[in-house]
Structure formats: structure tokens, C-alpha cells
Design goal:
Bound molecules: zinc ion
CATH superfamily: Zn-dependent exopeptidases
Oligomer: single chain
Number of helices: 9
Radius of gyration: 17 Å
Number of domains: 1
Shape: globular
Amino acid sequence: MKVALLVLLGVGILTAAHASDVAPDDRFDVVVIDPGHGGADFGARGASGILEKNVVMQIARRIRTSLTALGLRVVFTREDDRFVTLAERAEIANRAQGDLFLSIHANSAEDREARGPETYFLSLKASDEEAMRVALTENEVFGREAAVPDSDDIVAGILGDLILSDHMRGSSEIATAIQRNLRQLNGASRGVKQAPFVVLMGVNMPAALVEIGFLTNAEEARKLRTREYRAAIADAVARAVRSYRDARQRIAGEGAAR
Ligand SMILES: [Zn+2]
């Protein structure tokens, strides 16, 4: 039942996305930031009590400050510590006609040694088992048994559309840029991955999900408690958005000049 629901949600939202693709606005001016979890949904919990919903909000706010200084309009999917469904988050992003959607999360694992940031963009097939586990954890709020759609036909149809879309290329580019900047901060970079995150399925714009580090790793949890490290992560993400924006505007400018 949950599988069918997830597929329907994905198909419905993707269909809606195509309908509104008709009049593209070339200007890159709106970034939607999605601080993960909120309210009764704490997200990951670190050994010392650090909560994902709080640390991602602190980082999101710092990213907003940097992006606003660049002249971008930033829209949040939640402004405070409240519960917002994954579908509502996508709706907020689409209503704002965002040019980019960034979901900010912190990771957890049974293996307390697991560490380092990783950045995702959407695929219905996960790049590996570990990526699948992360997507299932982040999708959990969608339904305790939320699973990946497993109908090959539907998956192939949606994927065909996605692969062709400019949004997918954009998603891959921003994920790569973010991860490149995070790697300079944290040598334990885990790379760019793909997985079926429900929150990314609904948005009609290039989208990435950043796992800033592992709260279950004592050393990373300790660093994430410091304002300096959180600021460094936020600045790395903001720099990636700036270079992505500059590249997009160059392409748009070349298109207009033709
Ligand atoms: Zn999360």
C-alpha cells in the first residue's frame, strides 16, 4: 500500500511539474532551503543529545544569510521548529517557483565510525545499499513502511523523463559543487550519491539533499556543536550555490545572445 502511494505521489507530482514547465523564467533568483525534520520529528540524535532538526536549522539560517547577501531570494520550507510533511515541503518550493531546492540533513549510522558529508540527487534506484538506507531513514516520516517503488515499468517511465530533464542535469551539477566544497572542509567526504528521497521527487526544479555529517560519530557531533564548524559548512554550501548560479546565468546569457 505504501509502495503504491509513493509511486502515485511521484507520478502525480512529476506530471504536474511538466505542466508548469511551459514558461521558464531564466533568471536564477530564488533558492528554496529545506531544513530537514522539525517538531515531533527530531531526525537523527547524537550521543550527546544533539538533534538533527536543530543543527540543520542553524546551518540553513547561515546559508540564507550568505545567499541573501548575493542578492538571492531565499524561501524556507519551515521557519521554526514545526512538523512539515515531505509533500508540503515540495509544495512550498513549487509555489515559490524556486530555481534550486536544497534539503539540509545530518546523518546517522549504527557504525559509530561512519563519518563525513555526502550529497544526494534524485534517482529511483539508489547508488548502493548504504545510499538506500539513508533514503529510507529520511523517508521514514512519509510512513513507517515507506519503501521504494518496485514496479519496473513505472520506474523506467519516470526515470526516462528525469534523465532527459534539465532539472536532473542541474541537480547533478549542484550536488557535485556542494560536495566538492565540503570535501575541502572534511577529508572524510563520502561523495555524490543518488537515492529515492521522497522530498526530492516532488520539486519542479534542480534539487539536492546534503547530509552534512554523522551525528552518531562523536567527533563530528562535537564539531557540529561549534558555531565555527556549522558556519564553515554553510559557507561551503553557499559558495557552491554561487558558482552554480554563475554557471547557469552564463548559459542563459549565451542562449539569449544567440
Ligand atoms: Zn534527516
